[in-house]
Write a structure and sequence with these properties.
Elements lengths: L1 E4 L2 E4 L15 H10 L1 H8 L12 H13 L9 H4 L2 H4 L5 H14 L1 H22 L10 E7 L2 E2 L8 E2 L5 E3 L2 E5 L8 E6 L10 H13 L11 E5 L6 H7 L7 E3 L1
Helix pairs in contact: 2-3, 2-7, 8-9
Length: about 250
């Protein structure tokens, strides 16, 4: 059974064998969105990009794209798998509508990215508070790991180039909050870069660190209780000088 609640229907498990859905496991993701308040936060953040008579909310569209990726999609058209299950995901925008929103957000550039990142940071703080003793910063400290990763491209894509490993694709820098031996990492930032981007470019490590710190609760954005951890690619004077600048005083391990 279902009823409307927020951006997505509320689904309840029954044993009668009726109303079976294919993507039942995705209900966990939908409930996470609901419980964390991510749908409301993203919708509010993207309100400036909603047309006056638009049927679909930009925040819901963006969350649908994220859900499609989590379910195995690799292009915008894969939101179609959500459209096939309205009882779980509610109304889902058409492919052209999704593309138009992406174009609009891309045209807005930093303004749209800042709105989305701010909403994510607010929700992350709320989720960590709800997690209590199980949160990654429950002891008042947090570890952020920064590393580069090669993402292969099998055809010509924007910024896809030859990589230092003689492959072809992209070389983003990503930042994860370490959840310790009992959990996995929590992605907090990703700096998109072409495949030929350097491994030890200090400016990129600094920018990724800024993006990652902005995702943390405010009291963890500076001070020794926050540890920035990188491999040897982070071992540059410029990056270490930035980390240890007076007033910032972050801990670091390279």
């Amino acid at each position: 059974m279902k009823k409307s609640s927020g951006s997505y229907p509320r689904v309840r498990v029954e044993g009668g064998g009726r109303g079976v859905v294919v993507q039942a496991g995705s209900v966990l993701l939908v409930e996470t969105i609901r419980k964390s308040g991510l749908d409301g936060a993203i919708s509010a953040a993207l309100a400036p990009w909603r047309k006056p008579r638009a049927v679909h909310d930009p925040g819901k569209i963006l969350l649908d794209v994220a859900l499609a990726v989590a379910l195995g999609g690799d292009c915008l058209a894969d939101v179609g798998m959500l459209r096939a299950e309205p009882g779980v995901f509610g109304p889902v925008a058409s492919g052209p509508t999704v593309s138009r929103l992406v174009d609009a957000l891309a045209a807005a550039g930093p303004k749209a990215l800042t709105a989305i990142r701010t909403a994510r940071a607010e929700v992350r703080t709320r989720v960590w508070e709800l997690a209590g003793a199980d949160g990654p910063a429950a002891d008042g400290s947090v570890i952020v790991d920064i590393d580069g990763v090669l993402v292969l491209a099998h055809s010509e894509k924007q910024d896809a180039t030859a990589t230092w490993k003689k492959t072809f694709g992209h070389h983003p820098l990503v930042a994860f909050v370490d959840h310790g031996p009992a959990g996995s990492g929590e992605p907090v930032a990703a700096l998109l870069r072409p495949g030929n981007a350097g491994s030890n470019t200090a400016a990129d490590h600094i920018e990724t660190s800024r993006l990652a710190l902005a995702q943390l609760p405010k009291h963890l954005r500076r001070g020794h209780r926050t540890l920035i951890r990188t491999d040897s690619a982070g071992g540059t004077h410029a990056f270490l000088d930035w980390l240890s600048r007076p007033g910032r005083w972050l801990s670091y391990s390279v």
